[in-house]
Amino acid sequence: MAKQITQQTFDDVVLENIKEFEMSVEDAIEDAVQQFEAQGIDLSLIVCDPGLYGGDEGIAVHPVVRAIDNLSEAVDSGQFDPADKFLQIIQAECDVDLARRCLAGKHNAYPVLIKALRSFKSNTSRLTGTLSALCSLSNGQPDVLDGDGVSLLIQLLKECKDEDVIELTVRLIRLTCIKHEQNRQSYVKAGLVQALIETLDNHKKSAKIVKEVSFALRVLTFDDDVRVPFGQAHENAKMIVLEGNALKALLEICKEYTEDKGIQGELFTTLGKLVVRDEFCKEVMDLGGLELILKSFQQNVKDKSIVRQALFVLKALAGNDDIKDAIVKAGGMELILFALMQHHSHSSVAEIGCATVAMLTLRKPDHCVRVMENSGHEVIMQAMKIHIDKEGVLKQGCMALRNIVARAPEYCAPILESGAEAIIKQARKYKSCDDEAKAALRDLGCHVDFKELWTGEKGSLAQ
């Protein structure tokens, strides 16, 4: 791990260069950067703006730090009128980069803004300004959140009626959940799931709130915090579905936004993260969700964003064998292959498209027939050729080809004649694709050298 220094240490060296060696500000910064980088110091969180070194008596002036101090004084004194300007400065500075956000965080921006949030509850304009500043501060540094903030934000979500305030509150909750498992658990224990579902129900006509709530629910199912050995993503998804009755709520809202592709796509992606159990998949189909998704997919097949999001939820639903059959019976396989051809240049669509074909053909020889009748193997291989440097596409393509022939070996010959062996062998140069590529080559009847990783000799496995 690279060594780090404080902003003050960096500022002192820059100011020393200016005063002692009569360097220009630009040269002083460049020299300081070279010195620290030569020592292996990580400067990614250090503000290196020349405009910051023009203060009185040679002291570095950081606008965000000054604005935080001024805001704190304004709130403590009850002189709220200047607060708007200070909030704007804090937000603007935090929006520049992570270094400024970290600098603000180290100078008590979070407790000062929380204090302001409590003071401005009755003033919607200042309340939205404070929430906006908090969103900018928390973007990429969710560690600033504490228990007091969790309680305050959920209280605000439950009590406030203004749509702008609700949107910003949900966004702030989402930002403080990304890559932070402890924050997610704290919110869930404080009743966030039910609060979000109630917000969704009360403001279903507001597209911006629907979008933010959908995203926030999805973030609760993330497992993205490398600091914890395992998270509660699966348990959170179950809670959202079982206690919040979220599947029904989301599908009902989907029906109201059939003309808004952006909102529908968000809802589809969230549904895909929630169907973590077989019965949840069945519930979506029983509620008419599969028909709705396929219809939207077909109507918007030329829109790569909604195609990608529809494929994501279809792949998740296809974990249930009955739904696999329903998708293929409804013409879903042909639609997926057409979408792959339509958006062949987009690696994200190619990857999720191949993954969906792989899921639909798993243990389903009848579905493999539909793929081959529509030259699906050629579509998959074309995607692999175009994205030969994309490991995700190659991995999913290998899995799809392998599943097609695993229970329908009669298709080995036509697939090999199309040049599959050479493409799959190219995929093997990526370590993450090697297992899937070897499995595909094996089931296609090609020669593969397998390594015996352990032979039982020279001692036994550790118990």
Automatic annotation (TrEMBL):
Q: Which of UniProt's keywords are assigned here?
A: Repeat
Sequence ranges of the ARM repeats: 191-225, 288-332
Q: Does the keyword Ubl conjugation apply?
A: no
Q: What residue ranges carry the coiled-coil annotation? A: none
Task: Tell me which domain of life the UniProt entry assigns to the organism this sequence originates from.
Answer: Eukaryota
**InterPro entries, sorted:** ARM-like, ARM-type_fold, Armadillo
**RNA-binding recorded as keyword:** no
Q: What is this protein called?
A: Armadillo repeat-containing protein 6
Q: What is the originating organism of this protein?
A: Sinanodonta woodiana (Chinese pond mussel)
